[in-house]
Amino acid sequence: MASKDAEALEKMKRLEERIKAPSIWGRLPSGIRFEDLQDKRYDDAIRLLKKHYLPEEITYRSVKISEDKEGTDEFVHNVRIWMKDKMSIAAVKEGTDKLVGVLIMRIQEKSAFSRTFSRVKITHNPIYSTVMTFYNEIEKPVSVYDSLNVKRYFKVYIIALKHRYRHRGIAKEMLKAAMSLSANASVAALAGIFTTARSQTIAEELGFIKLNEIHYIRYLIDREIVFWDTGLGNYGAAIMAHRIPTVDEPLELQPQHSSRFNVASMHVVEEEDEMQ
């Protein structure tokens, strides 16, 4: 009897581990897998963003937000809110199980967007506000919902990788993994602001279209260029969106609070050049 009880308990433990295990959204031959970004990795994700994203992403780098504690703290505060939706993706090194990249996204719904408060981004730090205001200027003239004829979509906020894992096709495959997650969640579209020429090219290769773009040299505050440290060939930031043709929106939208869906089997994919 005791052995049967122990066996039953062991089965329950294995079942619980399977339930808690993250969904896998893709794997690369180089040993990188894409999985749900779970709360146990949130602190690692924040450390990665503070070290490898804020000092190097064009808009944040230009305003030197990584040198401003208050601005960095406000950025981190918002990222933690975005991650809590449990719709983001972790790039993990197989074997070591170390986090090497993140794609932060969450669902935007048209019904929620129609409420006034949901369109107001309250920011306090002037440096962080500078970037958020710029992003808002890019998004303001367009409606993703109307452009793609959808009631909801995944908004991609951040795609970030540790420096040594760049230029290896990982970011592009991570965006493809996000498209797979979106399809499995019956969310028919994705959109985000892409700030480099390379990231825009990658998005275009995956079927994204530009809805609006602002050139860095034309965005002035008090007659001065705000984003000056943009790098060679990076002329502007653009909001880009993609409608997944194989996904039909459900007639009645249900709130999604988890990225655990009926996952189709994932095939190993070949790596290509990736966004910076």
TrEMBL record:
GO terms for molecular function: N-acetyltransferase activity. Gene3D superfamilies: 3.40.630.30. This is Uncharacterized protein LOC113499629. It comes from Trichoplusia ni. The lineage of its organism: Eukaryota, Metazoa, Ecdysozoa, Arthropoda, Hexapoda.
